[in-house]
Amino acid sequence: REERKARYAEAQQKRAVLEVAMSQTRTNLGSLVQERQYLEAELTRMTAERRSSEDAARESGHARGEEEERVTELGAPKEEKRAVMEAVRTKLHSAESEWTGLDEKFRSGEALLAGMRESLTGKQATIEERRRRISAYEETAAGLERAVEVGRGAIEAAAVDLALKQEEIDRHLGENAAMYARLATVEEALKEKHRLEADEVARVSDLRLAAQRVEMDLEHLDSTIYQKYEIHPSETAGREESGEDDDGDLDAWEARAGEVRARMAAIGEVNLASLEEHRELAERHAFLLSQKEDLEKSLEDLAKAIQRINRTTRERFSAAFDNINRKFQEIFPKLFLGGRAYLTLLDEGNLLESGVEIVAQPPGKKLQSLNLLSGGEKALTAISLIFSIFLVKPSPFCLLDEADAPLDDANIDRFNSIVREMSSNYQFLLITHNKRTMELADVLYGITMEKPGVSKVVSVNFQS
User: Fold this and answer.
1) Inter-CA distances, 79 with 63, 67, 314, 410, Å
2) Residue 147 has what pLDDT?
3) Kind and range of the H or E element at 98?
4) In a 3-state reduction of DSSP, which class is residue 329?
5) Could you tell me the sign of the dihedral formed by the alpha carbons of 211, 214, 218, 219, in that order?
6) Which long-range contacts (CB under 8 A, 24 or more apart) does 405-412 make?
7) 259: containing domain
8) 452 belongs to a structural domain
9) Are 406 and 376 within 8 A, CB to CB?
10) CA nearest 56: which of 96, 83, 84, 105?
């Protein structure tokens, strides 16, 4: 595509040169035609003068003859005849000389007219040749325009595809952000679940301890009854089942029963709802376990998506880094008239978090980091990197804000040269105070402030 654009621009330039030459040739041809008309008119006048001279010579001859006859007839003296003859000869000689001069001028005019005709024929042939070349260049330009249109269509299709891919990337990034947000929510829920599980486990443990305390209290109560009354609970149960009764000890039994009731009341009621609470806790625990499995699966899906995005990002970054590094190694020697420079990764094992170091070696210096270069060298190196990135990822125009400020005259010329070379394919907007850079521009906009706070724009189109 770049080659087609260059060929199209070259054809347009040649066409403009030929049109200028053809215009100049038309002007010259018009001058030649006017000169030819003038010479033809002059030749006509000279021909008329020649004829007049010939007529005058003939008349002089007739006059001479008549004069001689008249002199002879009159019988004039010899001296008068001689004087008359001399006068006639002088007049005749003058007429012959004039006729000879007119004849030479006539022949010279004919030769000049022939030369002008030959030159005019050559000019017409040149015009025809240039017309033919212009027609050929127009056909070539038309073909290049068609090729440019085809290329523009391909570029537009590629731009649409790129936009779709960018939208897909943005969508993935949005999904990634949503997944991260969901992950944070899941982690919070998981922490809450763990806290609830811990609370439930502690509660179950407390219930078990309470049940154990009740059992211990019952055992202690049985032991106390046995120690004080020497009655074992199994014996009391056996008596009740057999229906035995001792009326003599009834009052004593009632007194003992009252004491036992009082002691049991002091011990407190047994929590009969512990089993139900334990069942509810078990169901809650099973529910939280299922939630935990869902969260762990979501975490696994998120990890896979992050790995896929990181892999794609690494591949694209690696390809872009290699292309920019290659262009940087091409442009740096052009701006410095020699030397070499390259980009290197600080951590090649971690492309997504690695820094990039610029290593440069201007002509006559050793290979060193960018921080050790002078201000102008740093600026020129940065310009090389910017142009390298621009060539790998181009855009319709490039804006440079006083990029040439730290450069000296020699570096300014090289900077202007590379901008002029790239301006055939891209549009540059330069903010500068340098006169050499201003001379490079096709259109110049001057910003002045005639009044405080009021800016005025003055534009100059150098092409017009």
Assistant:
1) 19, 14, 129, 97
2) 66
3) helix 78-229
4) helix
5) positive
6) 405/379, 405/432, 405/433, 405/434, 406/375, 406/376, 406/378, 406/379, 407/376, 407/379, 407/380, 407/434, 408/376, 409/436, 411/335, 411/376, 411/380, 412/436, 412/437
7) 168-312
8) yes
9) yes
10) 96
For the entire predicted model, the pTM comes to: 0.40
290 and 431 together in one domain? no
Tens of pLDDT along 415-457? 988 898 888 888 889 999 888 888 888 888 888 887 888 888 8
Alpha-helical runs (H) found in 230-273:
233-242, 250-267
Two tokens at 286?
Answer: 């099973």
pLDDT of residue 75: 46
Residues 399 and 426 in one domain: yes
How many structural domains are present in the chain? Answer: 3
Classify 401 as helix, strand or coil.
strand
pLDDT tens-digit series, residues 161-207: 777 877 777 777 777 677 667 667 766 766 776 677 677 667 766 66
Distance CA 106, CA 51 (A): 11
Whether 138 and 210 map to the same domain: the answer is no
Q: Which residues of 293-329 are buried (b: 16+ CB within 10 A; e: fewer)?
A: eebeeebeebeeeeeebeeeeeeeeeeebeebbebbe
Domain boundary among the residues 312, 347, 368 is at 312
Q: Token pair of 134, please? A: 């212009």
Whether the predicted pLDDT of 309 surpasses 80: yes
- The DSSP bridge pattern shows strands 427-431 and 397-401 to be parallel
Token pair for 68: 């001689």
Q: Which amino acid is at 104?
A: E
Q: Are residues 68 and 179 in the same domain?
A: no
If asked whether residues 89 and 199 sit together in one domain, one would say: no
Do 181 and 145 fall into the same domain? Answer: no
Q: For residue 350, is it within any domain?
A: no
Structure tokens at 132: 């033919």
